Amino acid sequence: MGFGVLGIRGLLALTSVPGVFGAVVERAPGPAPVEIIERDVVIIGGGAAGSHAAVRLREDFKKSVVVVEKDVLLGGHVDTYIDKTGAPRDYGVQCYFTYDDALDFIRRPALNLTLMPGLSRAATGFEATVRNVDFTTGKELANFTAPDAMVEIGAIVAMYQVLTSKGYDKMIEPGFYNLPAGPQIPDDLLLPVGQFAAKYNVTAALAKMYESTGGGPQARDSNFLNIMTLTFLQSFSPSWMKVFFGAADLFYVQGGNQKLYDAIATLLGKDVLYSTTVTSTERTATGVKVKVRGPSGTKVIKAKKLLVAIPPTRENLAPFDLNAEETDIFAKPTYGRYGTAIVTHPKLTPGQELHNMPTSAIADPYAPFLNTAHVLTFSSYGTDTDLFSIGVSSSGSSYAAFDERAATRVAQQSLEKMALAGTLPKLGCKKLTVVEWSDHGPGGFGVTPAEMRAGWMDRMYGLQGKRSTWYTGNAIAIDFTTQLWKMNDETIKRMLAAW
Ligand SMILES: Cc1cc2nc3c(=O)[nH]c(=O)nc-3n(C[C@H](O)[C@H](O)[C@H](O)COP(=O)(O)OP(=O)(O)OC[C@H]3O[C@@H](n4cnc5c(N)ncnc54)[C@H](O)[C@@H]3O)c2cc1C
């Protein structure tokens, strides 16, 4: 795709006048002036990866940047709802864990933030009363006995030891730069996670791992145990396992995790274009032109490098001028959809957590897997508030089919089942109120084991730097913020080396 209405000739015919952003406003013969922004790097997406890269490139490596973000704020998967008392309620990212020196990024004086130990959600010290309910029958599981925590932790330690003793951690963390070429990828990493766990006698780890990932990777598959180990480890990495046995610490940002991205937004100022998306690109070995549309119209960004920090889904890449190689690579991955929300319903009891637990878990509490679209929990924020958080996983439904409407329907139906079974009082005509919804986009982005064996990841990473384009983000690396930041550091190092 090219420059649409103007065309290259039209662009060359433009005359320049000084504009905002230290940029240039060029007047075309036609009616609307098109603003030209010139930067060293244009970054698409202002989530964890894009925001971090922008700060590192501009502040630490003195490269000029502009971030193109479709939302009205930075932060991606971070969601902080400020309730009517002023209390921050995080319902997306809960914490940042220690990984190498990555947390120093948050500690930089320019951001002026305070890191607090623990999970954001636990800040109040409140612990919900958990009721285990099969949301498909609506019945509470009276005879359910939770797995033994020590057995679960022991299995996570054992799994960590398998991964590290075989050097798998080094192949996958923090990104896949060190993953062997397709034919040499260890068979283990391409096994379904259920088979991997059985092979190494660590199936007792699966329940905790399933719960911790909250259904994100499961958005991809209708059977949790079938998720490829490598894909699953993106969301439950070896370094994250260390949190469970006390070898890594958790922190959150005082005042809510969104504060981090608000501070970055303040620092970056006009170098972020909000509510803006790409409409076309032209990429060559010497630079890129990215046409974007936002609230103040169309702009053209000319940059030496492009950093793609959005999931490279077919939907997201549609406006990009993909060549045959890129088209082939990005046609392969599949992914489902995952969302979170703050909700209320008058029949939900403040202080309680309704945990979706299949009836089969009475017989085997180490296998509480939900294999259809589902809400994992309705989690109260405390006895003094009617707010609950939910996470909704599409579990194998197609990405496009599972939007906010579909997710809300799943949540509402869960409540109706519980009311019919007498677990909740009768709902009357009251529907679930969605106070705030957050689309977490593709879950479990990835390809099949056969495609991985055939070298999909080599080809994906082989695109780094080609046509002045670089890639980062959770879809192609480990899906934790601090690890993504280290992935960024490596990517930026390579980008600067190739400048
Ligand atoms: C519910 C949830 C909870 C999580 N909790 C934690 C946690 O506690 N700790 C942790 O370390 N990790 C957590 N993670 C994982 C972590 O959030 C991700 O690893 C990280 O946010 C991914 O960052 P990213 O920049 O790759 O993607 P994103 O954060 O998704 O950022 C992508 C950005 O690009 C923008 N965008 C998307 N499409 C376009 C487009 N076409 N044009 C322009 N902009 C676009 C989006 O609006 C977004 O701002 C959680 C993830 C989820 C889903």
Automatic annotation (TrEMBL):
Pfam families recorded: Amino_oxidase (PF01593), NAD_binding_8 (PF13450)
Name the domain of life.
Eukaryota
- Indicate the segments forming the Amine oxidase domain, all copies: 242-313
Q: Does the keyword Transmembrane helix apply?
A: no
For this UniProt entry, the molecular function terms from Gene Ontology, in alphabetical order, are:
oxidoreductase activity
Keywords, in A-Z order:
Signal
Q: Which InterPro entries match?
A: Amino_oxidase, FAD/NAD-bd_sf, Flavin_monoamine_oxidase
Transferase keyword on record: no
Q: Which residues form the signal peptide?
A: 1-22
PANTHER family on file: AMINE OXIDASE DOMAIN-CONTAINING PROTEIN-RELATED (PTHR10742:SF419), FLAVIN MONOAMINE OXIDASE (PTHR10742)
- What this protein is called in its record is Amine oxidase domain-containing protein
